Amino acid sequence: MPLLRYVFLCYLTSLCILSAAGDSDLASSSLLAIAEKEAKIYQKIAEDPEFYSANDLDRRINELVQSYRTYLLDQPNDVSAYILYGKLLRRVQENEQAFIAFLKADELDPEIAVVKQQIGNHLAEEGQGKAALTFYLRAVELEPQTAIYHFALGQLIHDFRQEFIEDGIFTSDALEREMLKAFRRAAALEPENFDFQMRLGEAYYDLTSPDWKGALVHWNKLRKKALTTLQGEILDLHRARVLGKLGRAAEAHKLLEQVLSPALQHSKQQVHDEIAQH
């Protein structure tokens, strides 16, 4: 199985899933041992991305894959094992095999949100928006307090908007309401997640008639919470763009003067050019 070198952002994911599955799974010491071994690999990579050579990492991941397969031969009805195995396969881009694992998990227990989400992810990647929507909605229903499920739902609605409208799943107005609702919910559930907050602001641009005033209110609130200079300048770019759309060019140019980061100069020029066209 060809494996690429990669960085794992949440190295405790596997243990979190195992713990959430219940005491009966925790009692399975062999599964827990595999998950802990996996988590230690993620931890090492999080501490030092160059800790493992490419060949060493490939070997260790192959060993994990084989460990899960061997375990599942002995415990073919262990839902947690299928979830852990499926997520590992997703990380190493064995997506078809991961999909099979998640389908098996869903067959064994159809009430697990993360399984619904993972199946939906695969279907969305395969261009099956309508099928993915069913699974995303069920994930949100099962765990309404989990921000990432709302975020993914909003993105799915955006990505497949034309198909959903053409097939009569949503009217244009209803689709935009549901998209904004999903992004707002994600941002509300994780107010410190900068990516979620950014996507909500950009969603105002995605409307058939962009809500520039709504976007400005959002960016202004978020600007007060910027944690770094770069975040602040990114937000100032958005604020300047929106001010330009609202005909407030002088205020927009004043904000652009504050954007000094070399990495943002191209975007700054784009906003400047856009304002000049109005």
Percentage of β-strand residues: under 5%
Number of strands: 0
H/I helix tally: 16
Q: Look up the CATH topology of the largest domain.
A: Serine Threonine Protein Phosphatase 5, Tetratricopeptide repeat
Q: How many whole angstroms does the radius of gyration measure? A: 22 Å
Reported CATH architecture of the largest domain: Alpha Horseshoe
The proportion of residues forming helix, as a percent range, comes to over 70%
The assigned structural class equals mainly alpha
Oligomer kind: single chain
Secondary-structure element pattern, one letter each: HHHHHHHHHHHHHHHH
Distance between the termini: 54 Å
CATH class of the largest domain: Mainly Alpha
Count of all domains: 3
Kindly report the average pLDDT value. 90
**Low-pLDDT regions:** 1-23
Biggest pleated sheet: none
The shape is: globular
Map the helices and strands.
Elements: H1 13-20, H2 23-26, H3 29-47, H4 54-74, H5 79-91, H6 95-108, H7 113-125, H8 129-142, H9 147-159, H10 161-166, H11 172-189, H12 194-203, H13 212-223, H14 229-245, H15 249-256, H16 265-276
Helix pairs in contact: 1-3, 3-4, 4-5, 5-6, 6-7, 7-8, 8-9, 9-11, 11-12, 12-13, 13-14, 14-15, 14-16, 15-16
